[in-house]
Design goal:
The structure holds 2 protein chains of 2 kinds. By secondary structure, chain A is of the alpha/beta class. Chain A is 37% helix and 24% strand. A 6-stranded mixed beta sheet of chain A has the order 6-7-8-3-9-10, with helices on both faces. By secondary structure, chain B is mostly helical. The chains are: A alpha/beta, B mainly alpha. At the A-B interface, helix 2, helix 3 and helix 5 of A face helix 6 and helix 7 of B.
Chain lengths: 252, 254
């Protein structure tokens, strides 16, 4: 495939090849490769410090890489001439700590980027934002400030905020790790609905039963490499690598 | 009404010679107070405005990628924060004042400096309070978590948009209590402009009791009360502002 040929939906929407990344002397990613097709839901699991979060932060250029290539819809992400705004319109991201804007209401949080970054019409943006809040089951909370919402509600606002940019791929970085157990479920349901709608989702998660239920493919990382991967059924019930087995043994 | 007040204080001065509120019955002395108060207010407002501008520019320069700008700002802060404001006033007026050009006065033969002593007091006190404002704003900006800025980045905002729509509105809220303190201090520090003969309230009051020794207690009382009201009004306004900007679940308060 030549670099100049336009991306088509039969090619991987995200293509990661031999990615290496170091923080100083410490190499976090030691040659990671995989492809994701449009509409796929993939889960990256693994012990802390194995480079999971770093990997997905590289996909939308929040972190840079030292070697290898990451392509989103055929466009190389780690290119000095990269149009970052174009990339971030395609790739949405939801964080562990929600990172909402505390001085803006839920509705304003969702509306801010389309208004200020894309310069879209306020009327259209507001209509879309209200629909998105409804979709994440927060109808009636439009005028609440993040400080007045529970963790699970805040995280759902964060999902709506990211969707307002109409991305093609969504990254979820341990989005339920900071939540109370009772609110984890409402966030997971939202993600599940998103996946059912055909959104391409890349999740770093510790929720194994959720991963088994929604993922098309599971990647297990340890010490900067993908140790093992496969569809959930083979991965969870028939793991081959001793490191995977040890990890699953501790967690399940 | 005015007649009654004037005759009351004239009587009080006769029965209690140590409590001569001369400015409450002598229109010429009252005029001195009014003019002193207006200079104090003029000086305070100008210094508050100028020191805020210095604070914002300085905080921006401190976060700049240029090491020279950062070094310059740091030098400025250290110099003005660690020396007494009175010495700064004297230095600006007597040392720098020598080198500023002069113009011919209205009488045609006297030479007057282009910058009056009030002008120097405004510059000097603004630089003094501005040094603290830089640090106050910087602390506010640094209090905004890196992850919040990352969220902006992930939503496609550039650095300017991130600052304008998210970092600065939040930093302002973090900074307000400390800013409130510094501005209150600034208003009180304007009295030190007496050292370079700026005819502000303290200067006028001292002149009055130099002319009328019997007015000393009265003048001091009025000074205290005036500053309590002046600073009280500023603190009240700042607190109101703080409350209007308050957002549920962010920072302390109600």
């Amino acid at each position: 495939m030549s670099d100049n040929s336009p991306w088509t939906a039969d090619q991987p929407i995200v293509s990661i090849k031999n990615v290496r990344k170091s923080y100083g002397e410490f190499e976090v990613l030691k040659g990671v490769s995989f492809d994701i097709m449009k509409g796929d839901v993939i889960c990256i699991i693994g012990p802390s410090g194995s480079g999971k979060s770093t990997l997905i932060r590289c996909i939308n250029a929040l972190a840079d890489i030292q070697d290898g290539s990451i392509k989103v819809e055929g466009q190389e992400v780690h290119d000095a001439k990269l149009d970052k705004l174009a990339l971030r319109r395609k790739v949405g991201m939801v964080f562990q700590q929600y990172n909402l804007f505390p001085h803006k209401t839920a509705l304003q949080n969702v509306m801010m980027a389309p208004l200020k970054v894309l310069g879209q019409q306020k009327k259209d943006v507001e209509m879309r934002a209200r629909a998105l809040l409804k979709k994440v089951r927060l109808e009636g909370k439009e005028n609440a400030y993040p400080g007045e919402l529970s963790g699970g509600q805040q995280q759902r606002v964060a999902i709506a905020r990211s969707l307002a940019m109409q991305p093609d791929v969504m990254l979820f970085d341990e989005v339920t790790a900071a939540l109370d157990p009772e609110t984890v479920k409402e966030v997971l349901i939202t993600i599940k609905e998103l996946a059912a709608d055909g959104m391409t989702c890349i999740l770093v998660t510790h929720e194994m039963s959720f991963a088994r239920e929604v993922a098309d493919h599971i990647y297990f990382t340890d010490r900067g490499v993908i140790v093992e991967h496969g569809p959930p059924s083979t991965f969870f019930d028939n793991a081959q690598d001793p490191r995977t087995k040890a990890f699953l043994g501790q967690i399940l | 009404m005015i007649e009654t007040i004037q005759s009351f204080f004239r009587g009080l001065a006769q029965t209690h010679p140590k409590w001569n509120f001369i400015f409450f019955y002598e229109p010429s002395q009252w005029a001195r107070i009014v003019s002193g108060l207006s200079v104090t207010i003029e000086l305070s407002v100008a210094c508050i405005a100028l020191s805020l501008v210095i604070g914002i520019l300085g905080a921006w320069a401190q976060g700049s990628p240029s090491p020279f700008l950062r070094w310059l700002t740091q030098g400025y802060i250290q110099l003005f924060r660690n020396t007494p404001p009175m010495i700064q006033l004297l230095f600006f007026y007597f040392a720098l004042g020598q080198f500023t050009p002069t113009i011919t006065g209205p009488d045609g033969w006297t030479e007057e400096p282009v910058m009056s002593n009030i002008g120097w007091a405004m510059v000097s006190l603004s630089f003094f309070a501005g040094a603290f404002n830089v640090e106050i704003f910087r602390a506010g900006i640094e209090a905004i978590p890196q992850t919040t800025k990352e969220a902006c980045e992930a939503l496609g905002m550039n650095r300017l948009q991130t600052y304008a729509y998210v970092v600065l509105p939040l930093a302002l809220r973090v900074s307000l209590p400390a800013l409130n303190n510094n501005l209150v201090n600034l208003v009180k520090t304007t009295t030190q402009a007496i050292a370079i003969a700026v005819p502000e309230l303290l200067y006028q009051m001292v002149s009055i009791w130099n002319d009328y020794a019997s007015a000393q207690n009265a003048a001091m009382t009025v000074l205290f009360v005036t500053y309590i009201l002046l600073v009280g009004a500023l603190a009240f306004a700042m607190n109101r502002w703080e409350r209007t900007l308050h957002i549920p679940g962010f920072g302390g308060g109600r």
